Amino acid sequence: EDLLCIQEDGTVLIYNLFCEFKRHFSMGNEVLQNHVLEAKVFHTEYGTGVAILTGAHRFSLATNIDDLKLRRMPEVPGLQKPPSCWAVLSQDRVTIVLLAVGQDLYLLDNTSCSVVTPPGMSPSAGSYLRMAVSFNYRCLALFADSGYIWMGLTSLKEKLCEFNCSIRSAPKQMVWCMRPRSRQRAVVMAWDRQLMGVGNSTEGIHGEHRFVLDEDSYLVPELDGVRILSRTSHEFLHEIPEASQEIFKIASMAPGALLLEAQKEYEKESQKADEYLREIKDQKLLPEAVSQCIEAAGYEHEPDTQKSLLRAASFGKCFIDKFPPESFVRMCQDLRVLNAIRDYQIGIPLTFTQYPLQDGAGLLGPSRLVLRRLYPLAIRICEYLRLSKIQGVSRILAHWACYKVRRRLGKDKSDEEVAHAINQKLGDTPGISYSEIAARAYDCGRTELAIKLLEYEPRSGEQVPLLLKMKRSKLALSKAIESGDTDLAGWAPLPVPTCPHSPVAPQFCKHQERETLKDLYNQDDNHQELGNFHVHSSYSEKRIEGRVGALQNAVDEYYKAKNDFAAKATEDQIKLLRLQRHLQEDFDKPYLDLSLHDTVSNLILDGHHKRAEQLYREFKIPDKRYWWLKLSALANRGDWEEMEKFSKSKKSPIGYLVRVSL
């Protein structure tokens, strides 16, 4: 997702998708002195790497630009001119360089340079002009000036096949085209407006096949095919998956093909639909037919074809007892997401094979949609896939907030208004770190905004270090004291003379006596009383975030005291507070600080039965208590129709409250 620009002096500039400069690094002094003759960017399991051929005909490598470690490869003896071609290989977790000089091949690893000979290489092959390594680094192709093509494994221990090409001039590009776990292998070569594919498959490409291109094009090899990019078009060349071949080849009698025809005839109200179905069922191949249609739908790019295949699968499922629906449902979900991101306005043309490798976090996290700043779509997809908030929505909102801070959101607004706007959007969403957003604001020179954002950070341990970094010692100490953590308070340099007994004591004494008491509890490791202290302190907080933060501190202390009941009760109180805040926002009525009993009762009195039911399930209110609560509230409200409906829903565990009703 980043653009790497490698300059002649070995400086690598990195830009994002919007051509905004991110950072730069150097490939070392040797490259600086001898300049870059040729450079290649490559990808391995360790990340993105850069390989440089210098003017001194030496190679320098960086296997991971995010964890820069430069390697200078061994010298090739007697090399006086640049190699005719070279490539980077990844074998057994080691990155090596293969280069060709005339008819000789050299392999450079960390310590040595060795001459290698591919097995079964024709003696009359001539000098090597091009080489290509497959996307998974398992296969190697060599093109010689006689038109001879050798295809084998990168280990150079096995030959797959060889060809004599009718064109002897070096192709502009040579790349592999293959699918994961497929035995069909092909190499694609590009000359001026001409494409040639060679392979040895009995079912796919066998021999050489030529294609004429309308424009000058560039080839991009990928996991399951080759992208062909020109000024006006973007095409994808790939092996047709077996399921698609079975269904769409001419005169196919495969079960998937028959099921597709049956569904089409059914829509025409033709009796042929029954004939096709009987033929599949007689062979007991209906489950296979449904599976074929589901699989083939995934490999299609046109939504109409996808729908046609999925309709056929749905039609076939009706005639199968207990067909597991998971594969069908998952395919519908995947295709809906893929079609959304393939839209030309989004521009991420992933194939179905590539999509599982992205997974939820990859596609929606920093690497794809979020880096394109497509926040609404990313959030909608998260919600559609039902990803957890921490894995999905929280990450997206945090990225959005950092972007807004960096872009100087609200230049005409005060820092307090900007911080409030961000808090309104993020709230107390799980996984959101206000300290990270504040750190980004501070890095952008907006110190006051960073301080305002830190007020929404419930964890004092995250507030204090950043405040100290901003040289706000008094505020850092104040936050540390509020947290009740004496270790944290001790980090802050004190602005007043210190007491001989404790560096923090003078500051604690400025507060109420309870603060001194808290200090004593900390010294004695009295976690039970510390938990009680934090619960008491939480009710002096005006903001809900502060109250939740104090209660969370109480939970931690109760767990340290091994008081599981108090910890669980406090966690329930935190959950209730957050729900009450949402209820208050949704219905514009005061719900905060009501007991669970009163909250449920008020919801029923106001007619919000679904919300009341939600609290009953989430807090596991006993049936007897909930029935008493609901019947009493309905009687007070005079809602006899709802009471009758509720009484018929299931048997009452408490009888019926005739006296209350009267």
Describe the structure.
The chain is α+β, with helices and mostly antiparallel strands and about 650 residues long. It folds into 3 domains: about 5-230, YVTN repeat-like/Quinoprotein amine dehydrogenase (Methylamine Dehydrogenase, Chain H); about 295-490, no CATH class; about 595-650, DNA polymerase, domain 1 (Orthogonal Bundle), CATH 1.10.150.780. The chain is about 45% helix and about 20% strand. It is built from 26 helices and 22 strands. The strands form 6 sheets. The chain has a 4-stranded antiparallel β-sheet. α2 packs across α5 and α5 packs parallel to α7 (about 325-340). It is flat, with a radius of gyration of 34 Å.
Task: Report the helical percentage.
Answer: 40-55%
Contiguous uncertain segments of 5+ residues? 494-512
User: From the 3D coordinates, which CATH architecture of the largest domain would you assign?
Assistant: 7 Propeller
Which strand order does the major sheet show?
Answer: 4-5-6-7
Q: Strand content of the residues, in percent? A: 15-25%
CATH class type of the largest domain: Mainly Beta
Q: Tell me the span between the first and last alpha carbons.
A: 71 Å
GO biological process, one term: vacuole fusion, non-autophagic
Domain Vps16 N-terminal: 1-330
Main location: membrane
Subcellular location: Lysosome membrane
